[in-house]
Amino acid sequence: MPSFDEASLQDIANNIKTWAKEFGFSECRIVNPELEQYREDFHAWLEQGYHGEMDYLANHDDLRFQPANLHAGTQRVISLSMPYLPESVETVKRLKTPEKAYIARYALGRDYHKLIRKRLTQLAKRIEEEFGDHGYRAFVDSAPVLERQIAEQAGMGWIGKNTLLLSPKAGSWFLLGEVFTNLPLPVDPPTPQRHCGSCSACLDKCPTNAFVKPWVLDASKCISYLTIEYDGIIPEELRAKMGNRIFGCDDCQLVCPWTKFAKNTQEDDFQPRHNLDSEDLLTLFEWDEDTFLSNTAGSPIRRTGYENWRRNIAVALGNAPYSKATVDALDRAKKNASEKLLVHLEWALAQHQTPQ
């Protein structure tokens, strides 16, 4: 790797930030992260079992808190953000329409992992083309990387009481990615303080009361965990609280005052596919497995799998207004249902015993 003086490194950093905008990133900052300070709280969170069945979170301590172990020679991390909410997509209104499906707005279009990783790699290669081999590795929520903590230290924003990164420029409707680089670039100042103040809207409005206290989330109660990561029978006491949310949950973002500063995406790949921003629950429930696999190709929704997709929608149909079509669809689904799905179908049917 070629050597550079201080002025040259500053020029490189300035160029990187310009190129990042060209590749669709809304924010780009550079940090030399110090992550050991988060180890104790992270382990305490794990010991409480707040990670649910996400056992992978208990692995790779040597990588999570030491960035150089993820990529040999790491001297800096380039932290980047990209907005994902299309301007045309409704949020609160859709939550208040119980016969419609609500899918977390990051998951309506193409899988963000693929889109952002491609852009990160393009940025890293652009640096390489201009300044020579710098040694790099790109990450998008796919390795033991403390993304939000890195972004906070880079001055991108602060970690809010809802555990999401909040930006005074962009709220929280954005995704993060990182380029670990061996270039000793000048670093940006960290966020001086967290600006949640006395606000507790995200804690108070969580449908399942998943927040133990500010900055501590019991993921095992979180709708995003239950509908995406969890492979079992959803606890009965949480089902009615899930409403029409069938993949993920945005409530703690929707009520956050900083959301008013959110920027809309300009990326075509984040536009909704298959009317997923406004489709009826019953229509989605009637998808057979081939249709599910076809319609979720290249989508983050594929992660939940077909059986859990139907499980989630069954719960939502139990929370939806009574209709004979809904009851008939739930009843038909019992014929070939697995034991896990059957539990949720019978619960949903029980909610419709008396027409409303």
What's the short version?
Its cofactor is [4Fe-4S] cluster; cob(II)alamin. With about 350 residues, the protein is of the alpha+beta class.
For the biggest β-sheet, the strand order reads 1-2-7-4
Q: Strand tally, please?
A: 10
Largest sheet: 4 strands, antiparallel
State the secondary-structure class. alpha+beta
Radius of gyration of CA atoms, rounded to a whole number:
22 Å
Helix content: 25-40%
Number of helices: 16
Strand content: 5-15%
Distance between the termini: 70 Å
- Counted up, domains total 2
Low-confidence stretches: none
| Overall 3D shape | elongated
Order of helices and strands: HEHHHEHEHEHEEEHEEHHEHHHHHH
Secondary structure elements and pairings:
Elements: H1 6-22, E1 27-31, H2 39-47, H3 61-64, H4 67-70, E2 76-83, H5 92-95, E3 102-103, H6 112-131, E4 136-139, H7 147-153, E5 158-159, E6 165-166, E7 174-181, H8 201-205, E8 211-213, E9 216-217, H9 223-229, H10 236-239, E10 245-247, H11 251-254, H12 281-285, H13 289-295, H14 306-319, H15 324-333, H16 339-350
Parallel strand pairs: 3-10
Antiparallel strand pairs: 1-2, 2-7, 4-7, 5-6, 8-9
Helix pairs in contact: 1-6, 14-16, 15-16
Pathway: tRNA modification; tRNA-queuosine biosynthesis
GO molecular function: 4 iron, 4 sulfur cluster binding; cobalamin binding; epoxyqueuosine reductase activity; metal ion binding
Pfam families: Fer4_16, QueG_DUF1730
Structure overview:
[4Fe-4S] cluster 1 binds at residues 196, 199, 202, 256. Catalyzes the conversion of epoxyqueuosine (oQ) to queuosine (Q), which is a hypermodified base found in the wobble positions of tRNA(Asp), tRNA(Asn), tRNA(His) and tRNA(Tyr). InterPro entries: 4Fe4S_Fe-S-bd, 4Fe4S_Fe_S_CS, QueG, QueG_DUF1730. With 356 residues, this protein is of the alpha+beta class. It has 2 domains: 6-87 and 110-181, no CATH class; 201-350, no CATH class. The chain has helices spanning 6-22, 39-47, 61-64, 67-70, 92-95, 112-131, 147-153, 201-205, 223-229, 236-239, 251-254, 281-285, 289-295, 306-319, 324-333, 339-350; strands spanning 27-31, 76-83, 102-103, 136-139, 158-159, 165-166, 174-181, 211-213, 216-217, 245-247. Strand 5 (158-159) and strand 6 (165-166) form a beta hairpin. The longest helix is centred in the middle third of the chain and has 20 residues, at 112-131. The protein is elongated, with a radius of gyration of 22 Å. The termini are far apart.
